[in-house]
Amino acid sequence: MKDAIEILKAGNAHFANLFASYTRLTGRVEDLEEQDMPVADFTIEDMKKQRVKLKDELYHLLLAFRAGQQSARA
Fold first, then answer.
1. How high is the mean pLDDT of the chain?
2. Residue 40 in 3-state DSSP?
3. Whole-model pTM?
4. Which domain holds residue 58?
5. Angle at the Cα of 59 (from 71 to 8), degrees rounded to 5?
6. At what angle do helices 41-73 and 2-11 cross, to 10 degrees?
7. What distance in Å separates the CA atoms of residue 18 and residue 10, rounded to the nearest whole number?
């Protein structure tokens, strides 16, 4: 779905903002996990839940985009 992601990032501001938020949050979570920084368990769990929510919304936008592409071809 890399092609769809690039198209949506360029042409859909909502998708681009969600994608940027997801990328930033993923980086923060990975940094905390890799550096074993002292952080409350609920904080990292909350960040992970937020990341899953963003990923789910991005996925649904991608599915809708793909469905639109397929119906345009028919």
1. 90
2. coil
3. 0.85
4. 8-67
5. 65
6. 90
7. 13
